[in-house]
Here is the input.
Amino acid sequence: MKPYLFLLLSVLSFTGNAQVTALQADSLKQQAVADSTGKNRQEDSLKTATAPPSRPDTSGAAPAVSTKKQRPGYQPQIKLLLDVGNLGLNFLDERRNDYEISADYLYRNNWYIVAEGGYAEGKIDYDNLKYRTTSSYLRVGGDKSLLEPISKRDLDIVFFGFRYGIGMGTRGDAYYVVPSQFGPSKEGVFESQDFIVHWGEMTAGMRVELWQGIYAGWNFRARFLLNGKVFEQKISPNYIAGYGVADKSTSFGFNIYLGYAFRWHKKSPAGHPQ
Here is the structure.
């Protein structure tokens, strides 16, 4: 029986060693996995520790802002101007008396609404032709300043503008004499004529504040008569207020102004003056 027992013991011993070996292999695998996991965690921790922390910007630099220039507010005002240039010409030219005024309103920065009006008398007193003319006119339009204001009280301007003008008046009876070398002169009368004319106009000039609302300035004008045919086959007025000589389809003029500006404070939405 001993040989059989010895064989049985040998088999049992081999089986036990195999089991122990399998258990040891499993233990080594688990240990390897644990070591790998711990190493990965340690590497992640080191990466996190070595990453530079974010720091607030302490350089003091101002945040980027728009570089677009802000236009200052404007001071509302109305200017009333008298054409002193024409007043001077009235003393120098006996054939005419001309009176003109102008008013402009600062509607927006650099934009002005303009109204102008006046009255004129004209006289022709030649040996062979005599008559008188009276007329009045109204012009409306706008001026655009070519200068950018540096403050809301900076209201000196150099401008370009446009106008529409309408004039009306009467040319009185015209007495004429037609001399003849072969007999007596022929005399006659052209009856008086009422008229209405209108024209377009381009103008340029400047306005300068001399002192506390007192303004001076000038205008150069180019005027284009729109219905000149109204005087065909008739004696045209020698002078129409606001336009000039009526027998010309294009008229040029120059005005010198002096006046005063009336100002007020613009109210904010809350009702308080700005």
Remarks:
- The longest strand covers residues 193-211.
- The radius of gyration is 50 Å.
- Strands lie at 77-83, 96-108, 111-125, 129-145, 157-171, 174-178, 186-190, 193-211, 214-225, 250-263.
